[in-house]
Amino acid sequence: MYRSFVLAPPRSYALPVAISVTIALALWFGLTAIATQFDHDESQYVAGAYFSGRLLIFRDFLYLQPPLHSWTYAPLAWLFPDHMVLAMRLATALTALFTLSALWLAQRVAGVSRDSAAIATLLVASTAAFQFTGAVVRNDMLPTLLSAMGLLVSLLALRHCKRGYWFIAGALFGLAIATKLNFAPLGLMTGLFVLFTGGRCGFKAACFLALGALAGMAPMLIAWWAAPDAFFYGVLTYGATAPHAWYAANGAFDELDRLEKLTDLLKYLWKGPALVALLLLCGNWIATRGRVRSPGRRLAIWMTGGALIGAALPTPSQVQYVMPLLPSLALALGYLLDDARRWTFTRRQALLGLLCLAAIPGMLPATRHIVSMLRGGSPVLKADAGARWVGMTVRAMGHGDDIVTLSPHMILGSGLDLDPRFAAGPFAYRTGWTMGPVLARQVHAMIPATLADMDHAPPAAILTGYENGTRKLPLRPDGGLIAYARRHGYRMLTMPDGVGRLYLRTGRFPPSRSD
Q: With a threshold of 0.85, does the pTM exceed it?
């Protein structure tokens, strides 16, 4: 549907520069992976991967996301039991590198020049969303890689007009959806693009794309089949109800209105060149609306529209929800930079200067984390050391090696047995009133109303202190566990980091009583 590109002639400096850039990116993302402070959400992703290697997701423990990320990272918890958080973070950094490689290659397949593809890829890498999700254990970078690969195969399908490529592209988009639901509009808009712009071949291509997507979403079907009620609650019901309930309980419900969400989304796009790039692209698309666009350019426009819908869907808005936008943004930027080759020197330099300046806000948080690590040490390595201390301390008491906590990522390197009812971290627990005791027991989750269920087999230890609320959301999820520990005579020790509080069972266990 468009002509094949001709590779630029080899230049003596191209390979050394490519190797140098690759090494620099690997070092950067490796450093940010061990330097970035823990994200509030990491607990559920680390615990989900940990339990997925031992139990059946949704049937034996509650998970609040589609299952593919936890299944993908489960081997790391088994291979690196003493350093699983570090291993998962480094795996995320490696995924980020593969994502950038896929984005660069996709642009080259689309006919974008080597230099423009490299610049566009680096600009996408400098967004705050990419820097953040490439450094923590979350389910955002993996679907971005799958979507970037889906974009690459879609461009190959446009070039070769083979239905098999569309099936593979659909499978990749389906796998992305089976990892993170807000990537669904991206795949949907790709299908609509094929259906409405592919002419007589469009319907067949769209059918193969849809069949591939169904195959890619098979992990979700398997998880649903194993435990339908827990799957529907974790993947659909929780996200639609719990955030609103939690913000309302904290007196912050106004922050979830549409204007606030739009403001937050613009703020996250501004942290890096994404917002400036979108404005420039919109201006260029309007200015060139009379020209015939290649299929690759039209695909970028359709995918960008779908990605913006995906970014706006979740509540509340967070920086990581921008990730569906980045694959199509990289392709569109590559085209724009190639177009700029025909501009005057001054206009082209102004474009590059503006994009580079816009990249600075996206790089600042990661830079601060690295500087902080150089001064005070890695938070990940400190957490690993703290987990080992917890393991030795609990075992020395001789009352067992089971533990409960709303911060699983802080103790999974201890070798202790975490109660799977706490696999969701603080999230299902803190809005337990929206679930109720009957459903909580049915889906194997712990909520404040069912804490007394622990009385028949009291845990050897309870770890608190990492869920003490924030300025915006002051309620303390840890409060219920602290009260439980005090009621039942647990002895409190301060964690080596000075933040956590470890409660140890001391022999006789008093019966539960109401406050």
A: yes
Nearest in space to 129 (alpha carbons), one of 360, 300, 362, 359: 362
> Pick from 342, 374, 406: which residue ends a domain?
374
Distance CA 443, CA 439 (A): 6
Residue 157 and residue 84 share a domain:
yes
Q: 491 by DSSP, 3-state: which?
A: strand
Peptide bond into 314 cis (omega under 30): no
Give, in order, the Cα–Cα distances in Å from 74 to each of 24, 67, 77, 268: 29, 11, 5, 30
Q: CA angle, corner 132, sides to 126 and 135, nearest 5?
A: 110
Same domain, residue pair 21 and 117: yes
Q: Is the sign of the CA dihedral 179, 181, 185, 188 positive or negative? A: positive
The one-letter amino acid code at 5 reads: F
Residue 490 to residue 511: CA distance in whole angstroms: 13
- Determine the 3-state secondary structure of 324 from DSSP: helix
Percent of residues, the chain, with pLDDT higher than 70? 96
Torsion 39-362-266-301 (CA) sign: negative
Cα(57)–Cα(430) distance, rounded to whole angstroms? 21
Q: Which residue has the tokens 């005057």?
A: 344
Cα angle: 94, vertex 412, 483; to 5 degrees: 135
Give the range among 174-178, 194-198, 392-396, 428-432 with minimum mean pLDDT: 194-198
Q: Which range of residues forms the domain containing residue 459?
A: 379-504
Rounded Cα–Cα distance for residues 506 and 489 (Å): 7
Q: Are residues 139 and 282 in the same domain?
A: yes
Enter the DSSP assignment of 235: I
| Whether residue 366 sits in one domain with residue 260 | yes
Tell me the pLDDT of the chain averaged across its residues. 93
Give the model's confidence band at 220: pLDDT under 50 very low, under 70 low, under 90 confident, else very high: very high
Query: What is the Cβ-side half-sphere exposure of residue 458, based on CA atoms within 13 angstroms?
Result: 21
Please tell me the total number of residues recorded for the chain in this structure.
515
Of 31, 47, 124, residue with least CA distance to 84: 47
Do 326 and 355 belong to one domain? yes
* Mean pLDDT along residues 482-508: 94
Q: Evaluate the omega torsion of the peptide bond into residue 295 and state whether it is cis, within 30 degrees of 0.
A: no
pLDDT band at residue 371, thresholds of 50, 70 and 90? very high
